[in-house]
Amino acid sequence: MSGVRTVVHLLRHGEVHNPSEILYGRLPGFRLSEHGRNQAEIVAKSLAETDIVAVHASPLQRAQETAAPVAAAHDLQVVTDEGLIEADNRFEGKTVSVGGGALRVPRYWPLLRDPFTPSWGEPYLQIAHRMLAAVHRARMAAEGHEAVCISHQLPIWTLRRFVTGQRLWHDPRRRQCSLASLTSLVFTGTELTQLRYSEPAGASEPGQTGA
Fold first, then answer.
1. What CATH number does residue 11 fall under?
2. pTM of structure
3. Number of domains forming the structure of the chain
4. How many secondary structure helices (H) and strands (E) does the chain include?
5. 101: which strand partners?
């Protein structure tokens, strides 16, 4: 089985209903918007003819809702994997923007002291390790076929930088991980041999509201 080809698609969830424009992180109750549901359906249709035998998803509602049409198209059950969850963030529940929101409040400034770890949330290296473990669980579940893992922008982008040998700290405005995009990891046996990126539901800005 050492030369078996397996593909694990990392699917970012669709647009979220977030009229207050807060950083919702791991907070419960954040569902897909109508546009986000449409994005999930578009991705499901784009994957309908692929050899998907496993669908794994973050436990958060927006990821589960994005996973549902993909799983239904292949008559599969969604497997919840905690390793795919959104990154922990101490600004969760607050409005955050460059030069605005919680970032203007002095009592929060100590959280910004170390952007390289980062000091305001889950360490990048920890994110990369748990995501890579989740990907390999999906790879083993789908060996010789394809799997889809539904996750979130920062975890997907952090893993992509990790597996391509780039530093993990980065400018969030330069992430290539649109809503409902696919970052596809191709394995030969256990070795990652190719990485592909596509936007079946169209492009979105990294900081778009509802992301």
1. 3.40.50.1240
2. 0.93
3. 1
4. 4, 8
5. 96
Q: Do residues 35 and 172 touch, judged by C-beta distance below 8 A? A: no
Asked if residue 109 is part of any domain, the answer here is: no
* DSSP class of 187: E
Q: Which residue has the tokens 């950083």?
A: 23
Return the structure tokens found at 83: 């390793």
pLDDT tens digits for range 35-87: 999 999 999 999 999 999 999 999 999 999 999 999 999 999 999 999 999 99
Helix axes 153-163, 124-141, angle to 10 degrees: 90
Q: 201 vs 42, 73, 99, 176, CA distance in Å? A: 6, 17, 31, 14
CA separation for the pair 55, 53 (Å, rounded)? 7
Q: Is residue 117 part of a domain?
A: no
Least Cα distance to 63 among 147, 180, 184, 142 occurs for: 180
- Look at residue 125 and give its three-state secondary structure: helix
Chain segment 59-72, per-residue pLDDT in tens:
999 999 999 999 99
Q: Is residue 106 part of a domain?
A: no
pLDDT in tens, 159-169: 999 999 999 99
Tokens read off for 140: 């083993």
> What crossing angle do the helices spanning 61-73 and 34-46 adopt, rounded to 10°?
40
Q: Is 81 contained in some domain?
A: yes
Query: Residue range 180-184: average pLDDT?
Result: 98
Q: Which domain holds residue 135?
A: 5-90+122-198
